[in-house]
Amino acid sequence: MVIDMDTMKATLTPARETAPRNAPIHPLWLRITHWLNAVAALVMMFSGWRIYDASPVFHNIVIPPSITLGGWLGGALQWHFAAMWLLVFNGIVYLALNIASGRFVAKFFPVSPRAVLRDFIAALSGKLAHADLRQYNAVQKLAYLVVIVDLAVLVLSGLAIWKSVQFPLLRELMGGYDNARIVHFCAMAVMAAFVVVHVAMVALVPRSLLTMLRGR
Amino acid sequence: MKTDDKSIMKLDRAAILADARRELDMPSRRLFGKRLLTLGGLSLLTGCSITDDKSVNAFLTAVSRLNDRAQAFLFDPHQLAPTYTEAQLTRPFPFNAFYGIDDVPEVNGSDYRLKVSGLVTGQRVWTLPELYALPHAEQITRHICVEGWSAIGRWGGTPFAEFLRRIGADTSAKYVGFRCADDYYESIDMPTALHPQTLLTFEYDGQRLPAKYGYPMKLRMPTKLGYKNPKHIVEIFVTNTYPGGYWVDQGYNWFGGS
Question: Which fold has domain B78-250?
Answer without folding.
Answer: Sulfite Oxidase; Chain A, domain 2 (3.90.420)
